[in-house]
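Hi Y.,

Following your request, here is the sequence exactly as I used it, all 174 residues.
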Amino acid sequence: MLAESNKVRSIVFIGAECTGKTNIAQAIAKRLEEPCSNEYVRQYVDQLDRPLNQSDLEPIARGQIRIEDEAYAKASKYAFHDTNLLSSILYAEHYFDTHIAWVDELFQSRNYNHYFFCQPDIPWKADPGQRESPQEREKLHVQFESILTRFRIRYTTLEGSLEQRINAVLETCI
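Below is the corresponding structure, written out as tokens. Let me know if you'd prefer a different format.
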């Protein structure tokens, strides 16, 4: 769906765990009265009574696609995304040393207009079942930077307080 039209701009907030993606995505969507797709893996993990395993990767990717498309369909001007399929690709590599070909292909066919790369300059907060550690956040940050480069994705770096991040988004693409 994201590749069908240019009337709605898809804005993605990407980055390692606990870098403020959810806060900025929801705040900017609320301010502009536009939809925001959440990070599907959070919902998925909350319904499990076990740790994630490799068999969860495809349902997570399908769920991420669905919620991105739902936000896009509701948008009038912007659809904001608290991460996207790029995270699914990175986490499949990081945790399971695998690739899912259809996810990689679909990701490259989708139209995301702008990426904001959230920096790990805010305090790390524990979130059992969702986050590992501040050290893991630093490793994942480097991996996100690498995957953005690998896919030749241009992005704007977001750092500082929530209000500074909101102002940067508004100045950059609104």
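Helices lie at 21-32, 40-47, 57-74, 85-96, 101-109, 134-150, 162-173.

Thanks again,
Q.
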